[in-house]
Amino acid sequence: MSYIFGVDVGGTSVKIGLFTGEGELLEKWSIPTNTDNDGVSILPDIAASIEEKITEKGLSYSDILGVGLGLPGPVDEKGVIRRAVNLHWHDTFNVEERLMSCFKEDIRVKAGNDANVAALGEAWMGAGKGYKNIVMVTLGTGIGGGVIINGKMVTGTTGAAGEIGHTYTGTDTEEPCNCGNRGCLEQFASATGIVRLLKKEMEKNPDEKTEMNERPINAKEMWEAVKNKDPLATRVAGQFGQYLGTGLSVVAGVLNPEIIIIGGGVSMSGDVIMPFITENYKKHVFHASADTKFVRATLGNDGGIYGAAALLI
Ligand SMILES: [Zn+2]
Questions:
Q1: What's the CA-to-centroid distance between 166 and ligand 1, angstroms?
Q2: Predicted model pTM
Q3: CB atoms within 10 A of CB 78
Q4: CA 155 to CA 161: how far, in whole Å?
Q5: DSSP secondary structure letter of residue 57
Q6: Residue 64 Cα to ligand 1 middle (Å)
Q7: Which fold has domain 3-120+303-310?
Q8: pLDDT for 191-232, tens place per residue?
């Protein structure tokens, strides 16, 4: 029997999954992310938690194919990470070697950017199973993107391939994006982007009757209002779809994927979001990419640990 540990490192918690080599999730748990002192203890904490599980389960190191790591920052093919702001990591270093050195015995470690890794997870065991050319966008607080070509994760030169959220929309914003630029896709089509669009639309139409006057102002509530055919919320959904659908038509113009997977918190609002994206996608995309399939991610919050484990396959 062989085993893999898949680790999804976030700014507040680290999710860890124990998988069989065939991709069956046997157990999952999480530990807090300790970002004190520039996050120096994050990797030793992960190693300690995994070693504890190895002992508890009576596994031998030789049965473990390795540890996969999904990280919130750009990671290149050699395992070098360039800053992960959420983890308070400011340096450029080889995260695979650093984690390996935390274990008592030899163990293989592979690392990737969390959005790229999520795409790999969906390709392995989720909505992308059976497809070779996949684009995935993760719509959360920001927008992450992952690209799989010929079944392989594309990392790019500095680990920044698939950064769809930081492509320019053509619309300048007053406030800068987290990346420092202005007018990035994630400023319009992430959960926070939707709130921005919503507030603007409500300010512009102060007298309009809308469910949003009674609801908390967030993306989830806006999609609930769209389900009820609220006109203002539906207009905002249209703006969201225009930015995201157009952005994805550009991505498809370059990559011509078989399937585009929509994941992240926003995708959990259900199929209501899809027509807004596909309508605008079809309007702008090159004809030979018009039939690209759009689906929602199926692994939910476990996508990160699945993808991290898939790095070892
Ligand atoms: Zn940006």
A1: 4
A2: 0.92
A3: 11
A4: 5
A5: H
A6: 38
A7: Nucleotidyltransferase; domain 5 (3.30.420)
A8: 999 999 999 999 999 999 999 999 999 999 999 999 999 999
